[in-house]
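Let's sit down with a protein and look at its sequence and fold side by side. Once you have written the record down, we can walk along the chain together.
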Amino acid sequence: MRKLKLNSDTIDNILETLLKRSPQQYTEYENTVAEIVNNVRENGDKAVFEYTKKFDGADINSDNIVVTEEEIKEAYTLVSEELIDVIRKSLVNIEKYHAKQKQNSWFTSEEGIILGQKVSPLAKVGVYVPGGKAVYPSSVLMNVMPAKVAGVENIYMTTPCDKNGKVNPSTLVAANEAGVDTIYKCGGAQAIAALAFGTKSIAKVDKIVGPGNIFVALAKKAVFGYVSIDSIAGPSEILVLADETANPTYVAADLLSQAEHDELASAILVTTSAKLADEVEKEINRFVEILSRKDIIQKSLDNFGYLLIAENMKDAVECVNAIASEHLEIVTANPFETMTYVKNAGAIFLGQYSSEPLGDYFAGPNHVLPTNGTARFFSPLSVDDFIKKSSIVSYSREALEAVYPDIVKFANNEQLTAHANSIKVRFEDI
């Protein structure tokens, strides 16, 4: 983990290093993904089943690709009652938070003019859930619940199975509790393509959400336009903004909570206290030796870990806004005041007891967040991602007559005489 004094060159170099982790940079995989996507588009089930056998070693066909009620019931016997209880508590918090995001249709009426906006949920949504190196039932909850709150009619989930055709039981329990309608036993780029174009066994959807590896990310990029997607997610990242009041043990632990995701994860401390940076470094070294994913953490820290020392809080905040981290913890004497100067972050955690994993699992706000600096223009997954809006326009004859010369003038200026004509025919003999 590199310890550096913060300046403009430091920020530029860090940004360049972090952007190398973006899925946009892995162009060498795009041809492979394009081949898979095109094969599934042209050959449907046949291609999906062949890729599932090739990559996952599972014999999946049209008879067993859908998870059955019996398999879901079996999953409940394999997951502890304690975890099921936690999943249900988490769901309550997630639903309660997202319910506040729900939008309603609206209309205005004035002198023969009715204008408005009609809000409608998407009809079919596909949720991708990883099932490789790690299992994330929490991601099931975070991707499904805002869709349910939005009123999506049909939610389909795809997730890899093992060689015996089994899906991780905690994933199945989470999906059932969240209200997924259909679960397919397939993963990778082939699953994304199947959801985008539809096959005999897999439904075509309107939008695909959910995290995945580089092949999944690039497949989502490839099918964007045929369907909507949430984002092209990159590796996880955390930035802690702290002053001398922060607890170094807490800060170190929080940085490592994201470094353990994978070797490309990023963990950064920006602080105005050189003493805190030294203490955090010592605590990180101590924790790394006792944590189970030591090798992954160490590679992450070696390549994308930084302890940055700023001259003052103004410079520190400028750095925070430049990096635009997925997760931002603010651990300062007055974190709510400091927050007012932050413009770019996916999720913001305030105070020493608002540790990032609180947001991953339980608090309620969504943990599907913009990565790789895209918090400058993207937002967390929300109910808004599962709705569409239609504009409503209704004019009476009198209302249109009052403004029709203006519209005709505008259309003629653009040399669109048919536009002008469609207005004039209502009031002139043509």
